[in-house]
Amino acid sequence: MAGPSVSDDNVQDVPAQSGNRHTISRRRLLLSGGGGAIGIAALAGSAFGGIRIGSSNASHEQSSAPATPPEGDFKTRPGLIPPRLQVVDLDAGTASGLVMLTPSLLPGVRGLSQAQAVAKGKGQMGVMIANNRGEVIWFQPTTELATNLQVQSYRGQPVLTFWNGQIVNGMGYGKGYLLDHQYQTIATIKAGNGLEVDLHELTLTPQNTALVTAYRKSATDVSAIGGPKNGSVFEGVIQEIDIATGKVLFQWNSLDHVPVTDSYTKATGDSPVDYFHINSVALWDDNSLLVSARNTWTVYRIDRRSGAIIWRLGGKRSNFAIEKGANFEWQHHVRRYNNGITVFDDAATPAEEPQSRALVLAVDESAKKVSLTKAYTHPAKLLTYYEGSIQMLANGNAFVGWGTEPYSSEFDPNGNLIYDVRFPTNDQSYRAFRYEWTGTPASPPQLVVDQDAIGGYAAYVSWNGATNVAYWQVLAGSSAKSLEPVAVVPKAGFETAITVHPGASYVAVAGLDLSGKRLGISAPAKV
Predict the structure, then answer these.
(1) Distances (CA, A) of 54 to 111, 238, 419, 457, 517
(2) What's the predicted TM-score (pTM) here?
(3) Which CATH number do you get for residue 473?
């Protein structure tokens, strides 16, 4: 359960600054900040029964304000070490919502073990939500790789979804997870028929089913692509799974519909060939699916019931004439959009173009033509070796994740880069998204009171995953049962440091939203 929660009416009057003993009513408190925000200036250094508690940049004669612990070194969450994010560009016009990332620490990518990466300041791998300033809102480290953190709908409610598991030669073996607004796991998605859910896709449908990808090894003749007649391939598999029961409702196997001769990948010795490499599946409409296969350079529309291919776009047997600039190679993350599709065009590996692009393509099914509507490119001319995503936002902007390159970017409708955030060098996020999300963790805010270098005390507070905390209300008293509000300070990053002035025996801290509503309160801590 979350910490104690009270309504707006239970936000108590907060005494004014020392030397000004009249109280500030709740109405005046809310109005003093303008626009419904809580006034901060009148509260910093507030007095309560001789106890002074101020904001993190307050000062007094006994003790200076505590320095905020280094990023990634939180007193309230010592085992939590998210990667540091650097916001390169932040202009007006970004869409609302939070940034969803899955930082990875693959040794094959970084050349480091996770312990080495953390020691070098690159942070843990896991699932991450951040705000526009690059400040962590929620971070959950994972022992295995995570991908595809996004907001979807299940049974009419918003949920967080992501994949977690192992990756072997670019193929995933794991499970999908659904979390509610309290970050509690409400469903686990497992593949059926002896397979495991692959890292590349986890799409929920209005029928409360999950579309997932998987791989299976199958014997077949691969002599046409340089292998033996009695060779083998890794097939791309789609499963539609009923989330509540785990039942497989539909399965599609690539080898039943796509021959190995369609592949741009060649066999290497007797090893199984990843000839198809399925990397996205989504609804085209209620009766058909949109599927991307990286190694055939093709997007397929397939019948959701029979599995028959309705059309192919791109590759060696395209049913469409592709106009100039609308071509793609080694692509990822295909989605239907307006009268066409969006595609992340890696154009590598190996490189087919000088840089990767995020594309919006118009698809004319009647005339069998495909044309370029928009191409988004990074000014650093990034060439993404694999992975990547493009998400069209409600305001017409596009949010692009650059896969193996450490950048995530937002572009306005004219193609101008208006937001750019990056990981430490050589870090990556399989995809990157921006979503509206409201999270209120089941656990209460974490509070630690610690002595500073010159004998004073500081309170450190954080609430991992709380999205609506704007201010921290400090409560103090002579016992854990006699706490009263004494100050309100603005939330400052993931963990806020607050100077505790001499005289307090116990303190607690409550999270408030912009209107002053209390969202949750920490356990009392002895000073």
Answers:
(1) 45, 57, 34, 11, 20
(2) 0.86
(3) 2.60.40.10
